[in-house]
Structure formats: C-alpha cells, structure tokens
Amino acid sequence: MIKAMRTAASGMIAQQMNVDNIANNLANVNTTGFKKSNVEFQDVLYQNYRRAGTASAIGTEVPTGLAIGYGTRASATTRQFTPGNLQATGNPLDLAINGDGFFQIQHPDGTTAYTRDGSFHISGDGRIVNSDGYFLDPNISVPQDATAVSVGADGTVEVLTVGQTDPTQVGQIELARFVNPAGLEAIGRNLLIPTRASGDPTIDIPTQSGLGPIDQGYLEMSNVKVVDEMVNMIVAQRSYEMNSKAIQTADDMAGIANNLKR
To answer: Which of 10, 153, 184, 222 could cross-link 71 (Cys pair, CB 3.0–4.6 Å)?
Structure first.
C-alpha cells in the first residue's frame, strides 16, 4: 500500500510541475518573441520480482518478467522554437526575424545574450538598445539629426539626415543561430544564453547561412496557443485527480487490512 501511495504521489508531483509550466506559457501569451516549453516525463526504477528469461521450475524459460514501477518524474522542459505570428506595428525599430536566428544583445557584464524580441529603441547617445537599455550587438549608432531609419531584409541599417536626399548606411545587424536552440538557457528579460548543449553560435548577416530575413515594422508574437494550453491543463488536472484517487484507494485498502480480525 505504501508503495502505491508513493508511486501515485510521484505522479501528482510531476503533474504539478506540468501545470506550473503551462501557467508560465499562458502568462507569456503576449510576450514578444516568447517560445513555449513542454515538460517531458520519464518512468523511474522498477522492482523486478522475476526477470524475463529466467528458468522456471519445469526447466523452461519464462517469456515475460514481473516488475512493478515506482512512478514518474519530470526529466526536461523542451522549448519549442516554432515561429510566432508577425504583428505589424509601424515602428521602424520594431524588427522581426522571419525564419531562423536570434538578435545578439550585449549583456551588462560584457557577455552576449540572444533573443527573438526585436522591440528596439534609441538611447540618449543614439545607440540602438532593447527595452532594458542593453545594446544591440554589433553596436549601431543613429545620428542625432536622423529623420528616418530603414532596416533592410539583410540587416543593413540606413538613415536619412537633415538636408540629405540619399540614405547613409550606419550599421549592419548580424544574427546568430544554434545547432540545438532547445539547449539555450532562459535567464528572463526575453534573453537566452548558450550552454554546452546548445553549441557555439553561427553568426552571419540575415538571409545568409540559413538565417531568416528581417521584417521592419513588425514584431514576432508568442507562439503560445491558448486553446492548446487549456487542453493540456485539463489533461494535467485529470491526471492529478486520478493519482490522488489512487492514493485514496491505497489508503482505503490499508484501512481494510488494519481492521481485519481473527
């Protein structure tokens, strides 16, 4: 009975983690560039009462074994990098990657972080920054007298200044891609950092090396689908209820055994 309770409890713990993850997905349904994640599960150790292929009393081998598992556990959260819908904003510094790739952001400690959030702004000294004031890498400065900013599909940044009729190139946006983007570690603020599992980044200009083009005046929205997450939540809730019912059943059986009389 105790084994059944602990096994069912492992299922409840796993589904609680599943619901926590679903809640995070739903909380970020309007977060620019957010990528949803799914929880993966594994079964755990088994108690083998009889292994398959062991000799029987009559000199033959049993074709199947007898083993009881000890439940489940959450093994990983896998981030899904399917594209989100592009939303037109009309803001010239709102940029969306229409395909593979990440913007490079210079973190305050000097390291590089990566993001799909292309909501950029101009700082007081004219440099392009994200909403937290972190610099776009490579750094691009916009002149104070610029009247218009244009970003091409290949990441070329051009500006028109007062008194000029032809645009002037002021920088080139570069993107990064990873062989295993699911191995990137999320650190909040729409930023990801590389790990050994993600591999080293491949850096090039948009439209090259498998990188997507940049769409100016658009933002990539979250790829969370509310209906799918609500269905997943219902399934997780029902699984949680069934595991709690298994604990109650095991407790009732233990009560019956304890109340046996000679």
So the answer is: 10
Q: Clarify whether residues 206 and 228 are in a common domain.
A: no
Q: Please count the structural domains in the chain.
A: 2
Range of the domain at 22: 2-80+224-258
Phi-psi label, residue 259: left if phi above 0, alpha if psi -120 to 50, beta otherwise: alpha
Residue 162's pLDDT is what?
A: 86
Token pair for 138 = 């490579």
> Mapped to the 3 state alphabet, what secondary structure does the chain carry?
CHHHHHHHHHHHHHHHHHHHHHHHHHHCCCCCCCCCEEEEEEECCEEEEECCCCECCCCCECCCCEEEECCEEEEEEEECCCCCCEEECCCCCEEEECCCCEEEEECCCCCEEEECCCECEECCCCEEECCCCCEECCCCECCCCEEEEEECCCCEEEEEECCCCCCEEEEECCEEECCCHHHCEEEECCEEECCCCCCCCEEECCCCCCCCCEEECEEECCCCCHHHHHHHHHHHHHHHHHHHHHHHHHHHHHHHHHCCCC
Q: Quick one: which of 243, 238, 251 has its CA closest to 8? A: 243
Query: Residue 33: how many CA atoms within 13 Å on its side-chain side?
Result: 26
pLDDT of 44 higher than 80: yes
Q: How much is the pLDDT for 262?
A: 56
- How far is residue 142's CA from residue 125's CA, in Å, rounded to a whole number? 9
